[in-house]
Amino acid sequence: MQITLKIFRYNPEVDSTFHYETYTLEGEETDRVLDLLEKVKGYNDGTLSFRRSCAHGVCGSDALRINGRNYLACKVLVRDIGTNITVEPILGMKIIKDLIVDMEPFFENYKKVLPWFINDSPLPADGKERLQSPEQRAIFDEGTKCILCACCTTSCPSFWASDDYLGPAALVTAHRFIFDSRDEAASERMEIVSETSGLARCHTAFNCTLACPREIPITKLIGELKIATITGKIE
Amino acid sequence: MANIHQFDVVVVGAGGAGLMAGLYASRTAKTAVISKLYPTRSHTGAAQGGIGAALGNIEEDRPEWHTYDTVKGSDYLGDQDAIEFMCEEAPQAVLELEHMGLPFDRTPDGKISQRPFGGHTNNETGKPVRRAAHAADRTGHMILQTLYQQCLKNKVNFFDEYQVLDLLIVDGKAVGVVAVNLADGELHTFHAKSVIIATGGHGRIFEVTSNAYAYTGDGIAIAMRRGIPMEDMEFFQFHPTGIYKLGILITEGVRGEGGILINGQGERFMPKYAPTVKDLASRDVISRAIYTEIREGRGVDGKNYVWLDARPESIVKYAALDGRTNIDGTPYTITGEQLLAKLPDIVDFNRVYLGIDPVTQMMPIQPTAHYTMGGIPTNKYGEVVIDDKNTVMPGLYAAGECACVSVHGANRLGTNSLLDLVVFGKYAGLKAAEYANQAEFGKLPVDAEAATRSAFEALRNGSGKENAFDIAVEMKKVMFDEVGIYRSEKGMKIAIEKVRELRERYKQVKVTDTGKIFNTEMLNAWELGCMLEIAEVVAECALNRQESRGGHSREDFPNRDDVNWLKHTLAWWKDGKTAIDYKPVTITKYQPKARVY
Ligand SMILES: Cc1cc2nc3c(=O)[nH]c(=O)nc-3n(C[C@H](O)[C@H](O)[C@H](O)COP(=O)(O)OP(=O)(O)OC[C@H]3O[C@@H](n4cnc5c(N)ncnc54)[C@H](O)[C@@H]3O)c2cc1C
Ligand code: FES
Fold first, then answer.
1. φ, ψ of residue A24 in degrees (nearest 5)
2. What is the CA(B480)–ligand 1 centre distance, in A?
């Protein structure tokens, strides 16, 4: 079948501003948008630039705005969105070239919530694992799926309004540690997410949850964080 | 020559192996980790099923059993001292990951949960043993995240989206690497006392593969061009269960949870090939079984695929026939809901890419190119060894999929790669720092970046008569068809000739992007150059080995030949040709015997 691909283009070394380029190519219903981008790059225009690696939705490289919605290009098929496809960079980030944006501010926000396990108590005397029941493990399971693709954060109106907002991805990471029974830095993290650039900026627009390619119920997790900061209880 | 950095230790690659090495090296030495991808995009994040260790959390298990299973799995080509070392270290390595916060799944009593995996057995009963520690079907993702987070916590220096293009060796010592910063196209020289290569494998030389676009074998190609021999390059693993045509992996964990393989006639066929462990035999055995079924006309609808059946009613039925029980002795059962909880990503892949629900439908699968067993030869401390006497090259280390210790020999067991990363990544990091702390910086070459610049220039100035994308497609196809699961002299000669032709045509490729910022066209073309050279070495080594062993199955030499071929291949890339020699296999406790599952 014939597919029309309209792609956002911007090369700072040549262009003063962005434009759109339209390509028509042969494809199949089961093609990933990423497959189509690869074809365009291989045969139509080698200069087209985008990030990608795993090609099956687990590495988080290719978050893009496709037909006006955030997806991973490797996890959305022609049969899902039809044969007229518009591809743009994710919103709210500085565009470096074509579909590639500057991810540094996103990772900086991630680092703010202390995204690492903290437990300075002595290890169990037998040197074995710290015990955790399946129920305790289940409480923070959803957040552990995050691949830091930024689909959520860059779909959030509060983030568009101001990029010092931590954003849903960083909050999901905070949740993953705060609700881990083994972690000891919950109160420190709760303080961080309670600051003005944190939870208060979330107005439950729900965009993040819809955008997440890992189906993490982000709004729900943020809600749990909000309750925890109000009640001081983690459960 | 503006951008020169000095570090005691430079780690190339930020997957499981590179991060582990970086974490350990940075404790005592000034360390940089350079990665062409953001660390969390590394392919370790794709690993699904689990990491192997004889923790014995659910049932009796012992490191000796793990050692023997790995030796047997390797078809006796693995070095037994290194295998024993890895399997003895395994329980501690997995516990260390837990102590770093890795969210493993749990047993009812709160311990790390474990599942069965192919080739891992109770050596007394011969039955599958629960040895794979897991976090749902995203164990690698959790390892990658946890290690990256620990590196952030410990303030490891990262150079993200810097691609290494050359290894600097002066007077027989590694002295650094050359890299390009993708964001602005500037070249950088990293002057180091120790260099650790941890760049992963090269599955992208094959058409159908579970491997990421980034799996282009850069580290192996760079080292090979600088005179380092490669070990056992003929051994490449084809995983039995990739999604038909796409190659996306369906973890062996599906069969660990009770899934079975079914041919086009609706028969479960593995009992014919592996009567004891059946669908949990070693990967090479199962991939060949699938091919045999297909060739003998029992593929589905005469096509190149069979079914993987994980519908709960099938699992329960076959578990009952096999006498599989839970730990408490009750018959093994599973519900659709449990399957979804244990294998959420697998269910998701099927829904997204095939539009099917594995709880109610069977999955169409075919073998997929999966794992690079061969690579840069090292000893068990990650030190690169450059000849048949295992002479160490000062300052050079390798770990992870790009390295060949060799613990996987002719066929890797599932869950042993993640283990390999954490064990040998750690030791490579420790050794590299130890060496750096007593060594002086070697002298850099006069113009360290010269070779890299001229490689780029050649690609810019090609005639443009050839298209890089076409060349890649043709290489992948011939490698998959002729140097795949079954190999023959005739086919491999065709492949070698084809790859040589493609290498010639590659010289006519022209990179049209003249910019510096994210010139991905240039880097893709450069990577294709790496893959073409690797493909030729793989095919040459495969043609040279006149026997069948593990992942290397010759139709013209169907048997294993311990008299002539119980030895490692070493291959040098010299003046655009492959030169082959050998090195002995280390055998300690286990004498080779026939391999039956
Ligand atoms: C789908 C899938 C499932 C798997 N499941 C399992 C499993 O359940 N259990 C198991 O044990 N194994 C499994 N494996 C195998 C295992 O995941 C890999 O072998 C392992 O993760 C490789 O780790 P690594 O650290 O060597 O490389 P990677 O994690 O791939 O890291 C390579 C790093 O090198 C960098 N790099 C590469 N080239 C350059 C360059 N030129 N310059 C700078 N940086 C560079 C990359 O950016 C990356 O950071 C699986 C593999 C796949 C593909
Ligand atoms: S390429 Fe990895 S998520 Fe799409």
1. -110, 135
2. 21
